[in-house]
Amino acid sequence: MSPPPVLSIRDVQRLYRSGDTTVRALDGVSLDIHRGEVVGISGPSGSGKSTLLLIAGLLEPPSAGEVLIDGRRVSHPAADLDRLRTFRRNHIGFIFQKANLIPFLTAVENVALALEIDHVPPRAARAYAGALLASLDLGHRLDNHPSRLSGGEQQRVAVARALANAPSLLLADEPTAALDSVRGRQVLQLFREIARTRQAAVAVVTHDQRALDLFDRTIELSDGRTRDGAVHGTPGAAGTH
Amino acid sequence: MNLAFKDIRFNLLRFLLTALGVAFLMMSSMGMVGLYRGIVADALLIIERIGADQWVVQGGRQGPFSEGSAISSTMDRRVEGIAGVASARRFVQFSQQFTRDGRQLRASVTGLDFPKDPGRWIPIVRGRPLASGHYEAVADMSIGLRLGEKVHLGQDDYTVVGLTRGMVDTGGDGLLFVTVNDAVAIAQRRTSEEVLLARAGAGPAAASRSSVPQDSKIAAVLVTLNPAVDPELVRRAVASWGDANVLSRAEQENLLLNQRLWRLRVQILAFTGVLLVVTGIVVSLIIYMLTMENLHEIAMLKLIGADNSVIIVMIAQQAFLIGASGLGLGLMLSRLVFPFFPRKVLILPGDVALLGIAVAVICAFASLLGISRALKVRAQEVLS
Fold first, then answer.
1. Judged by CB atoms within 8 Å, which residues 271-310 of B form the interface with A?
2. What distance in Å separates residue A85's CA from the closest CA in chain B?
3. Which residue, among B158, B89, B150, has the nearest Cα to B117 in the 3D structure?
């Protein structure tokens, strides 16, 4: 029997009330992402990409449908997401357009913090964070504050922080938008490497059409739905690039 | 990892300036409380130091501090005759203005019943107590006189043989100790015209213009009782004369604090209360604003799965560090600045401890404000 998908979104709806009208941000979206897979989620502004990411990341509950992570039903309309903080910490890593590093912590402290929050002793957390940053070619920047790092370096620190607790699911929202095309491709190649070596599932929301070739699959959203015929690639067929 | 310390170290200047602002508020609060304590201490100084168990004053009056008192200069001999009285000393005190090198100086001339009382109870910091029955003075430094200096009072010159520090009267004027006889002579100084008018039969009118009543020489008699005697017996004996009244040390203190200085005390305490409320509001706002500045980081902490306790500890630690630094810095500034103030500002450990508790309560309240706001932050606000 094949293992369950890391992320399984089933018939998810997300409705927002705006005055007397109801906006359907997501309308019956289903999606599975397996271990080692890098999936691109694209679509025009307002198509529901970011909402999908928030629901997949257990930051917002769906209005209908359910979210399963590693085969566990974790989010549904009645879910108390605040109680899922520990689950989120251990299963999901986030990367955003902005690195969102904590400005008063150094690069290594930003990464170690994610581990210390998970009750890893400080010395061990710092050592592991240092090794993780070194593996991302940031060994010489450990003690620099974010303000002393370039945009690309900051983004790699954010990637290291997202990987610190060895999550099975990595969610990235426009991670290349603030980078030039070369740096952008480098980050996506890093995701591919992470998916391969750590057997993590990676979902990347992107506008960047130039990077679509780096995904195992792309899913295009439009008006809160998966566009017909817009799923490219085969689910579970990871690592073909 | 201590996030509060990391934030403070990274934004050290902001923290120091914030702590300095809080320190000035603390200093002001300490100053108001210290001023109150100083006024009370100054008022009680002579009563506590002079070592009298009872004060015999003018009949029907409650002098010499809360109202005027004038008794016969031989009253001490009558008092000494009462059974149970160990000693009786004459006492007089009045304000005197005089000129030195063209400058007007003020002093509270206080008479010591020399040789019974050469003033050994006076805390002399330089020089010596009185050693002669006439023309010597022990002056408080706040008057502005130097050791060995001669000062012209009444019609005589007095040599300053000793200096004290912090010996002042209720109004803050430095005490100038001379013998009772000299003090009476200084008080009785009259112009030649006054003397002539007195001789011409206008005595009472002329005398009434002098600084103390002329038919009485002293303000009070200080009584020291034998340890075994019942003070009430002495009181009754003096009261039976009809022309004198007896006040205990506790009654003198009560008269000063709860009658003469009552309005001033209430006024200062009211200002202190207002200042503490303002301090509380400002410190709370400062800590709340610091929390608001960190909202994005707090959202990020939530996103990466930090428990609420991590956020609560960070905000509370910062609040208490600001409060503690402000209090410590305020105390340091107070010790540096207040000695230069013209009136005594007394900072007592108990008051500092109480202020510390007030700061802790303020910080706890401010933390609660910040924490309640921080806990409302949603992790997805990182994206906004």
1. 296-297, 300-307, 310
2. 5
3. B89
Residue of higher predicted confidence among B6 and A185: B6
Report yes or no: B29 and B294 within 8 Å, Cβ to Cβ: no
Interface check for B13 against chain A (CB to CB < 8 A): the answer is: no
pLDDT in tens, A48-87: 888 888 899 888 889 999 999 988 888 888 888 777 888 8
Joined tokens for residue B80: 């000494």
| Chain mean pLDDT for chain B | 86
Residue A5 has pLDDT above 50, yes or no: yes
Q: What is the pLDDT of residues A124-170, one digit of tens each?
A: 999 989 988 988 888 888 999 999 998 888 888 988 898 888 888 98
Domains of chain A: 7-232 (3.40.50.300)
Q: pLDDT band for position A235 (50/70/90)? A: low
Query: Which residue among B1, B302, B380 places its CB closest to the CB of A113?
Result: B1
